[in-house]
């Protein structure tokens, strides 16, 4: 691998870590607040301290990178991150006894952490300019932005911050009457991650339209599924809307939907969305959507509390050999067991045929 791409990998990782460091403390906020009886305003001071130095020292940070060079500057930044992250946990527990001392020490540590994070992106820009020829800076800069968004997706703190005011004078929101079910931590940011990856790959593959034509609908389908799951996990949705969101990126003329309007409870809607996504991805890679004339028909019927969904592909590539069952096949066969259901997958000469049967739960 060329040296420039090894350096780009390091820059990507530092961009990823940069976002985690901005918000990692907020994961522990509930415990800290309860143990030291901090008010929401005091918690806002602690969490907001990072932003003050981070904003004020952007330009001085860029000058710092110019004076000492990207290699020395990034080495200093990485060491400072490690030391300050260590002291974030160490100082309040071992060196400071009072609640006021804990608060002050955390504010100071967060101010210093913001100061050491501020030079990162100006220095990254300088490193990219040094190691990549002019006119080829777009991809490495975009990749560093992807690292930032992935750091956001991997950070659980977003859920904690929803109930923590960001600064002085804020009023704490009322506690919900019923605690919501926990979502997977990456779900809210997943559409943003997928959209960023979509934009980066589009730029990289602009001169390879055939490759892009195969990848584009899959990424858009994934983004649609991520977004849909984040919305339906609490409220459910109609099965037709679910299928249109999943299949739409492949072209509305490529599929037909047959069935009455049917509202799916949240848990069943999420499960079926994952199954439909797996089937659609397979159709895009090997089945009906991978052939110019390939078509898909999805139909559903309800009898009592039992739902039957039929997935029929036609005019796709001939299926000569079926590979060993992978994760997707196992998902299709087991996902509906929680709803007293099952799936049957058949590989016909006309294309893949799948029947999904399950019980529609009355609550959730």
What can you see in these coordinates?
By secondary structure, this protein is α+β, with helices and mostly antiparallel strands. It folds into two domains: 3-137, no CATH class; 236-359, 2-Layer Sandwich (Heat Shock Protein 90). Helices cover 59% and strands 12% of the residues. It has a five-stranded mixed beta sheet with strand order 2-4-5-7-6, with helices on one face. A two-stranded antiparallel sheet has the order 1-3. Helix 1 (3-23) runs antiparallel to helix 6, helix 3 (40-56) runs parallel beside helix 5 (99-117) and helix 7 (138-153) packs antiparallel against helix 9 (190-204). The model is unreliable at 155-196 (pLDDT under 50).
Keywords:
364 residues; alpha+beta; Heat Shock Protein 90; 2 domains; 7 strands; flat
Distance between the termini: 50 Å
Total beta strands: 7
Compute the number of structural domains: 2
Describe the global form.
Answer: flat
How would you spell out the order of helices and strands?
Answer: HHHHHHHHHHEHEEHEEHEE
Which structural class matches the secondary elements? alpha+beta
Instruction: Summarize the main sheet.
Output: 5 strands, mixed
Low-confidence stretches: 155-196
Spatial ordering of strands, largest sheet: 2-4-5-7-6
Q: Quaternary status of these chains?
A: single chain
Instruction: Report the helical percentage.
Output: 55-70%
Mean pLDDT: 74
Number of helices: 13
Portion of residues in beta strands equals: 5-15%
Q: What Rg, in angstroms, do the CA atoms define?
A: 25 Å
């Amino acid at each position: 691998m060329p040296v420039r791409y090894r350096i780009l990998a390091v820059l990507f990782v530092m961009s990823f870590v940069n976002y985690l460091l901005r918000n990692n403390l907020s994961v522990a906020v509930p415990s800290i607040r309860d143990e030291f009886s901090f008010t929401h305003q005091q918690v806002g001071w602690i969490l907001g301290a990072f932003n003050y130095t981070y904003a004020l020292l952007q330009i001085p940070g860029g000058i710092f990178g110019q004076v000492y060079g990207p290699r020395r500057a990034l080495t200093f930044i990485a060491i400072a991150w490690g030391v300050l992250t260590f002291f974030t946990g160490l100082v309040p527990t071992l060196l400071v006894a009072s609640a006021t001392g804990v608060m002050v020490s955390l504010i100071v540590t967060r101010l210093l952490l913001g100061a050491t994070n501020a030079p990162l992106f100006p220095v990254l820009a300088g490193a990219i300019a040094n190691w990549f020829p002019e006119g080829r800076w777009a991809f490495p800069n975009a990749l560093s932005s992807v690292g930032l968004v992935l750091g956001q997706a991997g950070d659980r703190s977003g859920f904690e911050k929803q109930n923590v005011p960001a600064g002085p004078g804020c009023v704490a929101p009322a506690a919900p009457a019923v605690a919501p079910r926990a979502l997977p931590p990456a779900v809210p940011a997943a559409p943003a991650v997928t959209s960023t990856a979509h934009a980066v790959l589009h730029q990289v593959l602009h001169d390879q339209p055939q490759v892009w034509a195969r990848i584009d609908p899959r990424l858009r389908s994934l983004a649609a599924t991520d977004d849909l799951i984040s919305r339906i996990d609490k409220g459910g949705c109609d099965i037709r809307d679910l299928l249109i969101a999943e299949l739409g990126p492949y072209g509305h003329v490529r599929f037909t939907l047959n069935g009455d309007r049917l509202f799916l409870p949240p848990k069943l809607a999420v499960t079926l969305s994952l199954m439909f996504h797996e089937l659609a991805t397979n159709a895009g890679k090997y089945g009906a959507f991978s052939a110019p004339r390939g078509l898909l028909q999805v139909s559903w019927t309800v009898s009592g509390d039992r739902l039957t969904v039929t997935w029929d592909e036609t005019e796709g590539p001939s299926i000569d050999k079926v590979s060993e069952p992978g994760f997707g096949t196992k998902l299709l066969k087991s996902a509906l067991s929680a709803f007293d259901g099952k799936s049957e997958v058949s590989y016909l000469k006309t294309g893949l045929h799948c029947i999904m049967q399950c019980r529609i739960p009355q609550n959730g």
